[in-house]
């Protein structure tokens, strides 16, 4: 990960660290590495989304472990600087600053850790479509609903999951959401 961190400009690295701290503090549902990767690539840096996701996972593990062990800023920076593959100076400066400013606020209660291992629902979009024809069938005229769920996995990576349903399946799906809403109103 240290080799990939060297590629990331300091301002983008700082933004990534800030987002990870906010995610660990449950202030945002996750880190949109796809959007950040695109912005980094637009600035002229050759990095792919997989490498950026690895860096994000490494930093998330680093910050959560430091919080769990109640490390001071100096202890964290000293332990990072003495590793086999040491981090670049700009990365250590960013980590020092971010940890000094916001690191102590990371909640590492058992409940928060258990919740974080499940992932988090961020958004849902749906659209109605009609399949008119295909290679094998000239006249389909069958309606369907495409649902896209945006979720943040436990590491904070935001991804979209899409699936299609027939109209009866969507009606059942909708009915289940209404049941959940009515149960939540009684709580």
TrEMBL record:
Pfam families found in the cross-reference section: COMM_domain (PF07258)
Superkingdom, natural source: Eukaryota
General function of this protein: Scaffold protein in the commander complex that is essential for endosomal recycling of transmembrane cargos; the commander complex is composed of the CCC subcomplex and the retriever subcomplex. May modulate activity of cullin-RING E3 ubiquitin ligase (CRL) complexes. Down-regulates activation of NF-kappa-B. Inhibits TNF-induced NFKB1 activation.
Source organism of the structure: Molothrus ater (Brown-headed cowbird)
Family the UniProt entry places it in: Belongs to the COMM domain-containing protein 6 family.
Protein name: COMM domain-containing protein 6
InterPro entries noted in UniProt: COMM, COMMD4/6/7/8
GO MF term set: NF-kappaB binding
Domain COMM, first and last residues per copy: 120-187
Lineage: Eukaryota, Metazoa, Chordata, Craniata, Vertebrata
């Amino acid at each position: 990960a240290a080799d990939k961190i060297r590629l990331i400009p300091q301002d983008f690295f700082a933004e990534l660290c800030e987002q990870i701290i906010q995610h660990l503090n449950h202030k945002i549902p996750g880190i949109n590495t796809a959007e950040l990767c695109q912005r980094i690539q637009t600035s002229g840096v050759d990095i792919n989304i997989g490498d950026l996701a690895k860096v994000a996972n490494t930093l998330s593990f680093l910050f959560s472990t430091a919080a769990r062990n109640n490390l001071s800023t100096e202890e964290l920076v000293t332990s990072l600087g003495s590793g086999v593959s040491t981090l670049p100076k700009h990365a250590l400066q960013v980590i020092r600053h971010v940890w000094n400013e916001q690191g102590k606020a990371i909640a590492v209660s058992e409940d928060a850790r258990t919740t974080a291992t499940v992932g988090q629902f961020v958004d849902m979009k749906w659209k109605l479509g009609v399949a008119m024809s295909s290679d094998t069938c000239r006249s389909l005229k069958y309606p369907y609903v495409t649902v896209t769920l945006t979720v943040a996995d436990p590491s904070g990576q935001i991804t979209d999951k899409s699936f299609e349903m027939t109209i009866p399946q969507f009606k059942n799906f909708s009915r289940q959401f209404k049941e959940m809403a009515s149960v939540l109103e009684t709580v």
